[in-house]
Design a protein that fits this description.
alpha+beta; two-stranded antiparallel ribbon; 2 helices; 11 strands; Inorganic Pyrophosphatase; about 35% strand
Length: about 200
């Protein structure tokens, strides 16, 4: 079976390397001041789920969101992480603005929406980490998830449920945890990335 990371061009075979330090997925997970790096995939307002393809180093369209839905905030990932699903750790970046795919923001963990979903007939965790940029933002200043208005938390939960409505995943919200748990998930995912040897 051919190597999926190999491509052929004009009779020559090339091996794509995913350990290139210039790939967004291989940037450090943390900045020098300890902030978490967040790479934007789908900006606020996008009706398409964009995905960063680590083997190609480009953004591709994964799918469109269900009719009437758009991302309420920037959506992305923490570089140099490996989540339980094998991809970089997904994050929701809570701020008023809308950036662009590939923009890197320095953020701090705010909390995590604990979720599970069905995959191949069994339930598996698919928690969603929520972060905020390090600058003062008009959306408000929050120290942890309990500072978020209840209505905003409910809308974030509903967004996560609605985006997978037409799939067989059957997601369920298990609850919210604070910045300590979010930080722990980021650290665990960073460690998993480093242990895999890239």
């Amino acid at each position: 079976m051919p190597d999926p990371a190999a491509i052929s061009s004009q009779g020559r075979d090339y091996k794509l390397k995913n350990n290139d330090p210039h790939l967004l997925s291989n940037l450090p997970a943390y900045s020098e001041d300890g902030s978490v790096h967040a790479v934007v995939e789908a900006p606020k307002g996008s009706i398409m789920k964009l995905k960063y393809e680590t083997k190609l180093g480009v953004f591709t369209v994964a799918r469109s969101l269900p009719l009437g839905l758009s991302y309420p905030f920037d959506w992305g990932f923490v570089p140099s992480t490996k989540a339980p699903d094998g991809d970089p750790l997904d994050i929701l970046i809570l701020h008023e603005g809308s950036t662009y795919p590939g923009v890197v923001l320095r953020c701090r963990p705010l909390g995590v929406v604990e979720m599970d979903q069905e995959d191949d007939g069994k339930r598996e965790r698919n928690d969603r980490v929520v972060v905020m940029p390090g600058w003062d933002d008009r959306v408000g200043e929050f120290d942890d998830e309990s500072d978020l208005p209840e209505r905003l938390r409910e809308q974030i939960e509903q967004f996560f449920l609605s985006t997978t409505f037409f799939t067989a995943k059957k997601p369920e919200i298990l609850g919210w945890k604070g910045p300590k748990r979010a930080s722990s998930i980021i650290k665990e995912s960073n460690k998993a990335f480093l242990l895999q040897g890239n």
